[in-house]
Write a structure and sequence with these properties.
Helices cover about 40% and strands about 25% of the residues. The protein has about 290 residues and is of the alpha/beta class. The radius of gyration is 19 Å and the shape is globular.
Protein backbone atom coordinates (compact mmCIF):
# COMPACT_ATOMS: atom_id res chain seq x y z
CA UNK A 1 0.00 0.00 0.00
CA UNK A 2 1.46 3.36 -1.03
CA UNK A 3 2.03 6.06 1.60
CA UNK A 4 -0.77 8.21 0.23
CA UNK A 5 -3.21 5.29 0.62
CA UNK A 6 -2.55 4.89 4.33
CA UNK A 7 -5.37 5.74 6.71
CA UNK A 8 -5.01 9.14 8.34
CA UNK A 9 -5.32 8.57 12.12
CA UNK A 10 -5.05 10.37 15.46
CA UNK A 11 -4.54 9.20 19.03
CA UNK A 12 -6.50 10.91 21.78
CA UNK A 13 -4.70 10.42 25.08
CA UNK A 14 -0.99 10.47 25.90
CA UNK A 15 -0.72 8.01 28.78
CA UNK A 16 0.89 4.58 28.63
CA UNK A 17 -1.73 3.24 26.22
CA UNK A 18 -1.64 6.31 23.98
CA UNK A 19 2.16 6.39 23.71
CA UNK A 20 2.30 2.68 22.89
CA UNK A 21 -0.38 3.20 20.24
CA UNK A 22 1.73 5.97 18.72
CA UNK A 23 4.70 3.62 18.57
CA UNK A 24 2.67 0.82 16.94
CA UNK A 25 1.00 3.10 14.42
CA UNK A 26 4.36 4.58 13.51
CA UNK A 27 5.49 1.07 12.49
CA UNK A 28 2.32 0.27 10.53
CA UNK A 29 2.49 0.24 6.72
CA UNK A 30 -1.25 0.93 6.54
CA UNK A 31 -1.67 3.81 8.99
CA UNK A 32 -0.29 7.35 9.13
CA UNK A 33 -0.28 8.98 12.57
CA UNK A 34 -1.04 12.66 12.04
CA UNK A 35 -1.65 13.74 15.66
CA UNK A 36 -1.28 12.69 19.29
CA UNK A 37 -3.55 14.80 21.49
CA UNK A 38 -3.26 15.14 25.26
CA UNK A 39 -4.32 17.73 27.80
CA UNK A 40 -1.06 18.69 29.50
CA UNK A 41 1.59 20.42 27.41
CA UNK A 42 4.31 19.24 29.79
CA UNK A 43 3.19 15.61 30.08
CA UNK A 44 5.77 12.87 29.67
CA UNK A 45 3.56 11.12 27.13
CA UNK A 46 3.39 14.08 24.76
CA UNK A 47 7.13 14.54 25.06
CA UNK A 48 7.74 10.90 24.19
CA UNK A 49 5.38 11.07 21.21
CA UNK A 50 7.19 14.16 19.97
CA UNK A 51 10.54 12.38 20.38
CA UNK A 52 9.20 9.64 18.10
CA UNK A 53 8.60 12.32 15.48
CA UNK A 54 4.82 12.55 15.74
CA UNK A 55 2.86 15.82 15.76
CA UNK A 56 1.43 16.53 19.22
CA UNK A 57 -1.01 18.94 20.85
CA UNK A 58 -2.23 19.59 24.40
CA UNK A 59 -5.61 20.65 22.97
CA UNK A 60 -7.47 17.38 23.53
CA UNK A 61 -10.49 16.43 21.45
CA UNK A 62 -11.08 20.00 20.25
CA UNK A 63 -7.65 20.00 18.62
CA UNK A 64 -8.38 16.64 16.99
CA UNK A 65 -11.60 18.00 15.48
CA UNK A 66 -9.86 21.15 14.24
CA UNK A 67 -6.93 19.23 12.74
CA UNK A 68 -9.13 16.67 10.97
CA UNK A 69 -10.76 15.10 9.24
CA UNK A 70 -9.25 11.76 10.27
CA UNK A 71 -10.18 8.32 9.03
CA UNK A 72 -9.70 6.77 12.48
CA UNK A 73 -9.33 8.21 15.97
CA UNK A 74 -8.21 6.04 18.89
CA UNK A 75 -9.63 7.13 22.25
CA UNK A 76 -7.07 6.16 24.91
CA UNK A 77 -8.28 8.56 27.60
CA UNK A 78 -10.83 7.48 30.23
CA UNK A 79 -14.38 6.23 30.34
CA UNK A 80 -15.77 9.41 31.87
CA UNK A 81 -14.64 11.49 28.87
CA UNK A 82 -15.49 9.13 26.04
CA UNK A 83 -19.13 10.12 25.47
CA UNK A 84 -18.03 13.74 25.03
CA UNK A 85 -15.35 12.64 22.57
CA UNK A 86 -17.81 10.64 20.48
CA UNK A 87 -20.24 13.56 20.41
CA UNK A 88 -17.46 15.83 19.12
CA UNK A 89 -16.06 13.37 16.56
CA UNK A 90 -19.23 11.79 15.24
CA UNK A 91 -20.05 14.67 12.85
CA UNK A 92 -16.55 14.49 11.35
CA UNK A 93 -17.09 11.04 9.83
CA UNK A 94 -14.17 9.45 11.67
CA UNK A 95 -14.28 5.89 12.93
CA UNK A 96 -13.74 6.05 16.69
CA UNK A 97 -12.01 3.08 18.33
CA UNK A 98 -12.68 3.24 22.05
CA UNK A 99 -10.06 1.69 24.32
CA UNK A 100 -11.85 2.87 27.47
CA UNK A 101 -14.36 0.63 29.29
CA UNK A 102 -17.46 2.69 28.56
CA UNK A 103 -19.55 -0.02 26.98
CA UNK A 104 -20.63 2.49 24.34
CA UNK A 105 -20.41 1.68 20.66
CA UNK A 106 -20.32 -1.74 19.01
CA UNK A 107 -18.32 -4.22 21.08
CA UNK A 108 -15.57 -5.86 19.02
CA UNK A 109 -13.18 -8.66 19.93
CA UNK A 110 -11.07 -9.38 16.82
CA UNK A 111 -10.76 -13.12 17.40
CA UNK A 112 -14.55 -13.45 17.68
CA UNK A 113 -16.41 -10.80 15.67
CA UNK A 114 -13.68 -8.66 14.12
CA UNK A 115 -15.23 -9.22 10.68
CA UNK A 116 -18.14 -6.99 11.74
CA UNK A 117 -16.00 -3.97 12.58
CA UNK A 118 -15.94 -2.45 9.09
CA UNK A 119 -19.72 -1.94 9.25
CA UNK A 120 -19.55 0.43 12.22
CA UNK A 121 -17.96 3.77 13.05
CA UNK A 122 -18.03 3.55 16.85
CA UNK A 123 -16.13 0.53 18.13
CA UNK A 124 -15.65 -0.48 21.76
CA UNK A 125 -12.86 -2.87 22.78
CA UNK A 126 -14.35 -3.75 26.20
CA UNK A 127 -11.17 -3.93 28.32
CA UNK A 128 -7.79 -5.65 28.33
CA UNK A 129 -9.27 -8.47 30.42
CA UNK A 130 -12.20 -8.75 28.03
CA UNK A 131 -9.89 -9.01 25.03
CA UNK A 132 -7.98 -11.83 26.75
CA UNK A 133 -10.92 -13.76 28.16
CA UNK A 134 -13.75 -13.45 25.65
CA UNK A 135 -12.18 -15.45 22.79
CA UNK A 136 -11.65 -18.38 25.16
CA UNK A 137 -15.05 -18.09 26.86
CA UNK A 138 -16.84 -17.71 23.53
CA UNK A 139 -15.14 -20.89 22.30
CA UNK A 140 -16.19 -22.77 25.44
CA UNK A 141 -19.78 -21.55 25.14
CA UNK A 142 -19.96 -23.11 21.67
CA UNK A 143 -19.28 -26.53 23.19
CA UNK A 144 -21.45 -26.38 26.30
CA UNK A 145 -23.97 -24.15 28.07
CA UNK A 146 -22.25 -22.34 30.97
CA UNK A 147 -24.34 -21.60 34.03
CA UNK A 148 -21.67 -19.51 35.78
CA UNK A 149 -18.51 -17.73 34.60
CA UNK A 150 -15.87 -16.09 36.75
CA UNK A 151 -13.04 -13.97 35.35
CA UNK A 152 -10.14 -12.74 37.50
CA UNK A 153 -7.61 -10.43 35.82
CA UNK A 154 -4.29 -9.76 37.52
CA UNK A 155 -1.89 -7.16 36.21
CA UNK A 156 1.23 -5.42 37.35
CA UNK A 157 0.53 -2.19 39.21
CA UNK A 158 3.26 -0.56 37.13
CA UNK A 159 1.26 -1.13 33.92
CA UNK A 160 -1.92 0.52 35.24
CA UNK A 161 -1.99 4.27 34.72
CA UNK A 162 -4.27 6.83 36.39
CA UNK A 163 -7.10 6.37 33.87
CA UNK A 164 -7.11 2.60 34.40
CA UNK A 165 -7.36 3.04 38.15
CA UNK A 166 -10.07 5.67 37.76
CA UNK A 167 -12.14 3.35 35.57
CA UNK A 168 -12.02 0.09 37.55
CA UNK A 169 -15.76 0.09 38.28
CA UNK A 170 -16.53 0.63 34.59
CA UNK A 171 -13.96 -2.02 33.68
CA UNK A 172 -15.78 -4.61 35.77
CA UNK A 173 -19.26 -3.63 34.58
CA UNK A 174 -18.33 -3.45 30.88
CA UNK A 175 -16.35 -6.69 30.92
CA UNK A 176 -19.18 -8.49 32.72
CA UNK A 177 -21.72 -7.27 30.17
CA UNK A 178 -19.52 -8.32 27.24
CA UNK A 179 -18.95 -11.80 28.68
CA UNK A 180 -22.71 -12.21 29.05
CA UNK A 181 -23.25 -11.10 25.45
CA UNK A 182 -20.63 -13.36 23.89
CA UNK A 183 -21.44 -16.47 25.95
CA UNK A 184 -25.16 -16.19 26.65
CA UNK A 185 -24.45 -16.69 30.35
CA UNK A 186 -26.38 -14.56 32.84
CA UNK A 187 -24.39 -15.36 36.00
CA UNK A 188 -21.02 -13.68 35.49
CA UNK A 189 -18.53 -12.31 38.01
CA UNK A 190 -15.47 -10.23 37.05
CA UNK A 191 -12.67 -9.23 39.41
CA UNK A 192 -9.47 -7.21 38.97
CA UNK A 193 -6.22 -7.33 40.93
CA UNK A 194 -3.33 -4.89 40.58
CA UNK A 195 -0.17 -6.45 41.94
CA UNK A 196 2.74 -4.36 43.27
CA UNK A 197 5.00 -7.44 43.30
CA UNK A 198 8.61 -7.20 42.13
CA UNK A 199 9.57 -8.44 39.67
CA UNK A 200 6.34 -7.34 38.02
CA UNK A 201 4.10 -10.31 37.11
CA UNK A 202 2.79 -10.86 33.59
CA UNK A 203 -0.79 -10.01 32.76
CA UNK A 204 -2.84 -13.05 33.75
CA UNK A 205 -6.53 -13.86 33.35
CA UNK A 206 -7.99 -16.83 35.22
CA UNK A 207 -11.40 -18.13 34.12
CA UNK A 208 -13.73 -20.60 35.81
CA UNK A 209 -16.73 -21.96 33.93
CA UNK A 210 -19.45 -24.14 35.45
CA UNK A 211 -21.50 -26.11 32.94
CA UNK A 212 -23.28 -29.39 32.38
CA UNK A 213 -22.56 -31.80 29.56
CA UNK A 214 -18.90 -30.86 29.14
CA UNK A 215 -17.08 -32.89 26.47
CA UNK A 216 -13.38 -32.50 27.36
CA UNK A 217 -11.82 -33.22 23.96
CA UNK A 218 -14.07 -30.75 22.15
CA UNK A 219 -13.52 -28.07 24.79
CA UNK A 220 -9.74 -28.45 24.64
CA UNK A 221 -9.74 -28.29 20.84
CA UNK A 222 -11.90 -25.17 20.82
CA UNK A 223 -9.74 -23.39 23.40
CA UNK A 224 -6.58 -24.20 21.44
CA UNK A 225 -8.14 -22.81 18.25
CA UNK A 226 -9.22 -19.63 20.05
CA UNK A 227 -5.72 -19.13 21.46
CA UNK A 228 -4.20 -19.58 18.00
CA UNK A 229 -6.55 -16.92 16.62
CA UNK A 230 -5.51 -14.41 19.29
CA UNK A 231 -1.82 -15.24 18.89
CA UNK A 232 -2.06 -14.23 15.24
CA UNK A 233 -2.10 -10.59 16.39
CA UNK A 234 -0.84 -10.93 20.01
CA UNK A 235 2.22 -13.23 19.87
CA UNK A 236 2.63 -13.16 23.66
CA UNK A 237 -0.79 -14.72 24.33
CA UNK A 238 -0.72 -18.26 25.73
CA UNK A 239 -2.81 -20.71 27.72
CA UNK A 240 -0.74 -21.60 30.78
CA UNK A 241 -3.22 -23.84 32.59
CA UNK A 242 -6.27 -25.82 31.53
CA UNK A 243 -8.32 -28.29 33.59
CA UNK A 244 -11.51 -29.82 32.21
CA UNK A 245 -13.46 -31.72 34.85
CA UNK A 246 -17.08 -32.87 35.11
CA UNK A 247 -19.14 -29.71 35.50
CA UNK A 248 -16.13 -27.36 35.66
CA UNK A 249 -13.56 -25.83 33.33
CA UNK A 250 -10.60 -23.80 34.64
CA UNK A 251 -8.41 -21.85 32.22
CA UNK A 252 -5.56 -19.43 32.80
CA UNK A 253 -4.08 -17.28 30.04
CA UNK A 254 -1.09 -14.99 30.21
CA UNK A 255 -0.08 -12.15 27.91
CA UNK A 256 3.48 -10.88 27.74
CA UNK A 257 4.27 -7.80 25.69
CA UNK A 258 6.57 -8.53 22.77
CA UNK A 259 8.43 -5.97 20.68
CA UNK A 260 7.99 -2.23 20.77
CA UNK A 261 8.60 -0.09 23.84
CA UNK A 262 6.52 -1.96 26.41
CA UNK A 263 8.04 -3.97 29.26
CA UNK A 264 7.15 -7.66 29.10
CA UNK A 265 4.76 -7.42 32.06
CA UNK A 266 2.54 -4.88 30.25
CA UNK A 267 0.53 -7.54 28.45
CA UNK A 268 -2.70 -5.74 29.35
CA UNK A 269 -1.65 -2.78 27.22
CA UNK A 270 -0.25 -5.04 24.50
CA UNK A 271 -3.44 -7.00 23.88
CA UNK A 272 -5.89 -4.11 23.69
CA UNK A 273 -3.57 -1.95 21.59
CA UNK A 274 -2.83 -4.83 19.22
CA UNK A 275 -6.57 -5.30 18.77
CA UNK A 276 -7.11 -1.58 18.11
CA UNK A 277 -4.36 -1.29 15.50
CA UNK A 278 -5.46 -4.52 13.81
CA UNK A 279 -8.99 -3.18 13.37
CA UNK A 280 -7.70 0.10 11.93
CA UNK A 281 -5.42 -1.77 9.52
CA UNK A 282 -8.24 -4.05 8.43
CA UNK A 283 -10.43 -1.04 7.71
CA UNK A 284 -7.61 0.34 5.55
CA UNK A 285 -7.36 -2.92 3.63
CA UNK A 286 -11.13 -2.98 3.11
CA UNK A 287 -10.95 0.36 1.28
CA UNK A 288 -8.37 -0.77 -1.26
Amino acid sequence: MAADERRHVAVLGAGLIGVDLADRIGRSPKLELALVAGRDRDSLGLRRAAEMGHPTTPGGVRAVVEAGPFDVVFDATNADSHAEHWAALRPTGATLIDLTPTGLGTVIVPGVNGHRAASYRHLNLVSCGGQAAIPVLHAISKRCAPTYIEVVSTGASASAGPATRLNLDQYIATTSAAVRTFTGTRDVKVMVNLSPARPAPPFRVAMTVLADGIRPALVRTSIAAAADAVRAYVPGFKVTSLAVDPGRISVVVEVTASGGRLPRHAGSVDIINAAAVLLAEQSAAALR
